Amino acid sequence: MTPSPLASAAVLTFALAGAVFAAGCVPTMSNPPEYAEKPISAQAGETYFLKTGGGDPYAAGMAYPIFIALMEDFPEELGKDWAEFADKFGMIPDPAAKGDPQAPPIGFYLTTDPNSKVPWLVGNCTMCHTERIRLATGDVIVPGLGNKAVRPHAYVNALMRIGNSPRLKEDRILAIATRRAREWKVPWPEPMRKPIVNVTLSAFKDGAKKRAPSTRRFDGALPGRMATIESFALGLEAYRKQPIRMPEAIGWAKVPDVRSFQFRDTFSYDGSGYGSPQALVLEADFLFGARPEWYLSHPHIATSVFLYLRSFTRKLPYPAPIDAKLALRGKEVFEGTCATCHGYYVDHGDEMRVSYKERVVPIDMVGTDRARLDAVTPSFVTAANEFPPMKGYTAVKNTGGYVPPVLLDVWARGVLGHAGQWPSVEALATPPEERPRKFIVDTKGLYDLERVGVRYEAVAGTPRALRPGEYLYDGDLPGLGTQGHPFLSELDADDRRAAIEYLKTL
């Protein structure tokens, strides 16, 4: 079993802490009405994906007054308010909130616990699977597209540091939570305050003590990337009570676009997790908080999310002129060179029809960085396949290669590659030995329509000081190599230019 891409948003909010919050210690189940059984449908799945998340607030969330108290008491870790929080961790302020300082960013949802009447903060898939494309004409918020700036590992490690801080005191958090709840008019019934704070911080401290040494390994995570297999291994270890042998090099993976999931049988970059697609959609929730009994009693959630992803569609036309004649020639080039792996595309005006068959391209053929593939170790495979809740529903294997993606909306996906190793289509189309290996990415800059990717600056020698919103990508580091996939670069210059023009139309 490998973590579904959705785990990055719905689960890693409070993950890797091993469900350390109040939640994890409460034996009862909180069942807000929006998670109650309802007809299974893609429409219901859309609500779970975009708004409510997978549920089980006690196990995958935190009482809202406590969270806002932590922001006030540890501003150096979380930011003093939601605006600073979003900026610190690469999250997107919700435009629907219209600047309301009390509104969480995209990816968070407040649900009311029917037992305590307290609002609980939970995550949903859009924390990682919604992007903001900055264009000269204004920002465009794109649900489903991977967020290239989000920093879930930085967020989790900030929580770990708070949990291990000697400053974290129950009486102080209780006092701040009570005051902030009153100021923000957040329900915080007096009889429930102290018990919730006590059980939350007790579990929080215990989880941080156990997990912080392991999660520090991910301090080097770049924006928009996750150590998906390694994170899942930590969750599995909590169930197995024994370590899982993993490589030293981390298999970094970019947050993917879900646009192509309707054409896939698996959801990971290497196709290593396979089996029931309904189970694959939300299986990682088990390892990062949500309890198996929650999904046994709420089977409609995973199935509805699966139906939503299976029917997911989106109109995201390239926002600049396209040379139609050149693109038509590029279609011929693409179909003669790339389509066997990436699919065939026919534009019917109202929809783009795709003919695609999922396959794994061996690593020796594609030649890209193998760290993500090698993270699926024999030890991990054994542990994942023995995980009781998913046994018989899903399984894991090391596939020996990577799955070529469907290329719908590829113009908007920069950075490209499974590790985000190529900043633009132009860089990907450059011979591997000539590609930028070190480059500075500006996550706050305008999208680079000319090079079809993120705005970046190649680095030769010592990199300059970084400005806010920038980071350095170093292709010499393990797991971040820029080699491989030479196929576009092997075309002659005219065919290459035509193929790139065609990609803008998809």
Short description:
With 506 residues, the chain is an alpha+beta fold. It is 36% helix and 12% strand. It has a domain at 7-220 and 289-310.
Tell me the strand order in the biggest sheet.
1-3-2
**DSSP helix count?**
21
Low-confidence stretches: 1-26
Largest sheet: 3 strands, antiparallel
Helical content (DSSP H or I, runs of 4+): 25-40%
Task: Kindly state the number of beta strands.
Answer: 16
**What would you report as the Rg, rounded to the nearest angstrom?**
22 Å
- Binned strand content: 5-15%
Main structural class: alpha+beta
Between the first and last Cα atoms, what is the distance in angstroms? Answer: 32 Å
Shape: globular
Mean pLDDT: 90
Q: What can you tell me about this protein's structure?
A:
By secondary structure, the protein is α+β, with helices and mostly antiparallel strands. It has a domain at 7-220 and 289-310. It contains 21 helices and 16 strands. It has helices at residues 7-10, 22-25, 42-52, 57-60, 64-73, 75-78, 82-88, 152-163, 170-183, 190-215, 228-240, 277-282, 292-297, 299-310, 324-337, 339-342, 363-366, 371-374, 378-385, 425-428, 493-503, and strands at 61-63, 108-112, 119-123, 130-135, 138-143, 225-226, 253-254, 273-275, 344-347, 352-355, 361-362, 394-396, 401-402, 438-442, 456-458, 470-474. The protein has a three-stranded antiparallel beta sheet. A three-stranded antiparallel beta sheet has the order 15-14-16, with no helix packed on it. The chain has a two-stranded antiparallel ribbon with strand order 4-5. A hairpin with a 6-residue loop joins strand 2 (108-112) and strand 3 (119-123). The radius of gyration is 22 Å and the shape is globular. The relative contact order is 0.14. Residues 1-26 have low confidence and may be disordered.
